[in-house]
């Protein structure tokens, strides 16, 4: 069981140059149905320290929404830092005029669900510290001023 984070963008930038111990970009996409949800031509698999995409901030449900880390829901410092780095890259791309979307897929054995909902994320309303991924959702990033 594992998270798979897929990202697409209009940017031709080689995102693998941004890879480090906590965030890793690869052009090699897994063969899961959620790839079809990506809207832009330049597609990336986003791995984390764990090798898969598990070491980012994730929630099973969107009921709690976006929010900064809290004491009553412990999160690893590396998950927080990895998510901050990734949303920073996404924010930079959006602010430079590029389009970005991503899919956060939870793979359980051989089941590969299609993202159940699309969320428009206005980066003017959601801070980097509040951002987290929601399982089996498609994210469209905007910067609506």
Describe the structure.
The structure is a single chain. By secondary structure, the chain is of the alpha/beta class. The protein has one domain (2-142). It contains 1 helix and 8 strands. The strands form 2 sheets. It has a 6-stranded mixed beta sheet with strand order 2-3-1-5-8-6, covered by helices on one side. The chain is globular, with a radius of gyration of 14 Å. The termini are far apart.
Task: Give the key terms.
145 residues, six-stranded mixed beta sheet, two-stranded parallel ribbon, 8 strands, globular
The structural class is: alpha/beta
Shape: globular
**Please, what is the average pLDDT?**
91
Strand content: 25-35%
In terms of topology, how is this protein built?
Elements: E1 2-9, E2 23-26, E3 42-48, E4 58-59, H1 77-95, E5 100-107, E6 117-122, E7 133-134, E8 137-142
Parallel strand pairs: 4-7, 6-8
Antiparallel strand pairs: 1-3, 1-5, 2-3, 5-8
Short description:
The chain has 1 helix and 8 strands, in the order ββββαββββ. By secondary structure, it is of the alpha/beta class.
